[in-house]
Amino acid sequence: MISITARALLTAAAVAALVPAVADAQGRIAIGMQQEPTSLDPTSDATAAINVMLTQNVYEGLTTVDQSGAVQPQLARSWEISEDGLTYRFHLHEGVTFHDGTPMTAADVVFSFDRARAEDSTSPRRATFQPIESIAALDDHTVEIVLSRPDAFFLFDLAQGPAVIVGEASVETNAQRPVGTGAFRFDSWTRGDRLRLVKNADHRNADAVALDAVEFRFIAEPAAASAALLAEELDAFPGFPAPELVPQFEADPRFDVRISSTEGEVILAMNNAKEPFTDIRVRRAVSHALNRGEIIDGAMYGYAIPIGSFYPPHGPAHVDLTDRYPHDPDQARALLEEAGVAGASLTMRLPPFPYAQRSGEIIQAQLGAAGLDVRIESVEWGFWLEEVFRNKNYDFTIIAHTSPNDLGNFARGPDYFYGYEDEEFVALWDAIRTETDDETRLEMLRQGQRHITEQAVHGFLFQLPAIGIFRTGVEGFWESQPVLQLPLTEVSVN
Fold first, then answer.
1. Contact 114, 145 (CB under 8 A)
2. Helices 280-289 and 329-339, axial angle in degrees (round to 10)
3. How far apart are CA 349 and CA 217, in angstroms?
4. Residue 218 carries which DSSP code?
5. Disulfide engineering: 39 pairs with which of 45, 52, 246, 253, CB 3.0-4.6 Å?
6. Distance from C-alpha of 393 to C-alpha of 385, rounded to nearest angstrom
7. Residue 36 pLDDT greater than 70, yes or no
């Protein structure tokens, strides 16, 4: 059997032959991406890769978020908030145009938000827009938004992909040819291979942008990702999928290795709307069957932090709940027998990401030791989105949730793919969103973490690490990931 490292070296020449270099010219950069999206429109598709590539680069929102997680102006140069926290007045930059030459005005903000909050909206984050009672363009460069209730996350949420501002003239084709107002404009998309952006010379901050062209190359297989880097066909792979190869790159002076945390909670999701997971004893049995240390060592080579609930360990409200369900196969087996499902046959549908595939094989054995017969079914990303995420056609799956402030997923009701319905948690999340006192809100977030852990809604595994491999001389990438975005306006290649 050929090792992953050996295969990487053997395939380097093939990768080099197939992919013409862009890394040899200053002002141009090639970036590896593990995941290729099925759409390029973040206002209608939740795929994380869309936001990574396009939000803050091609698309812009009223606000943005900096590397520290603080909200900053973007299309809105400033704003005022009423004392009761219900009325927001945004003042837009003047002279902004979409990439197709259409002026961007307050009317486009109204159109974008009305579309997102409409009854037939396909927005992946409708909750962002639900508090909006009214929105009006006071003039071409002033927008007033009135909320029905205070929303502690409102300005932060406006910086996310689902809240970017789009033009009515291009909205129907954004999924294939995105048109935004950002510092980079879409150039081409070769499906299964790469996506290319070029500098938007008409952008208000164009003079400060060092890059003239960006190529995202889609390389899902870890060996091929390593080969492309070693062959110097890539300048960067911010989400490097092969943690076992990190020491090799750390020892190579051509590369810088940067490891940090992300907002991505990796979970063993259980379909709570489907038997046997409607029984809390079964869900708790699954949690007792899991050995997080073994999963992290085997799937992530130690490069991950265990989690016991659905909140990042680096967050200010984090509660360590990893000891709530200690690894105990005997206890898991007893609970399954008590629930009458010992020996049940179930299916684990896994998306094509290495963290999910590797974790799934380990968890399959751990659940087997507790008395569950689990069959793994590896599926393509498009299939996963359709059958697991949209149709809730699964028993188990493993997925990383990479959006910030996403504890609210557990308040989305049975229509969300968790199949989880909990009026008590819905009420708590509503209170969290409307609480303006920071310390009170943090304590409520701690309460929320304890609640979903007590309910054993899912098996909580680990926080997805950000493993970045960068060619020496590449500067300006974020060191941390408060949001799943990859802003390129400060990136340079020397």
1. no
2. 160
3. 26
4. E
5. 45
6. 10
7. yes
Name the token pair of 203.
Answer: 């952008």
Fold of 63-173: Dipeptide-binding Protein; domain 1 (3.90.76)
| Phi-psi category of residue 113: left, alpha or beta, with phi > 0 → left and psi -120 to 50 → alpha | alpha
Question: How many CB atoms neighbour CB 364 within 10 A?
Answer: 18
Q: What is the pLDDT of residue 26?
A: 64
Cis before 238 (ω within 30): no
Same topology, domains 4-57+174-261+466-493 and 63-173? Answer is: no
Unique residue bearing structure tokens 């996310």: 160
Is-contact 63 167, C-beta < 8 A? no
* pLDDT tens readout for residues 108-119: 999 999 999 999
Would you state the pLDDT for residue 22? Answer: 44
Residues, the chain, total?
494
Q: What is the CA radius of gyration of the chain?
A: 23
Place of tokens 């595939």: 357
- Model-level pTM? 0.84
pLDDT of residue 15: 38
Q: Where are the domains of the chain?
A: 4-57+174-261+466-493, 63-173, 264-464
In angstroms, the CA 136 to CA 460 distance is 42
What CATH class is the domain 264-464? alpha beta
Do 417 and 479 meet the contact criterion of CB atoms below 8 Å apart?
Answer: no
How far is 90 from 341, CA to CA, in rounded Å?
A: 56
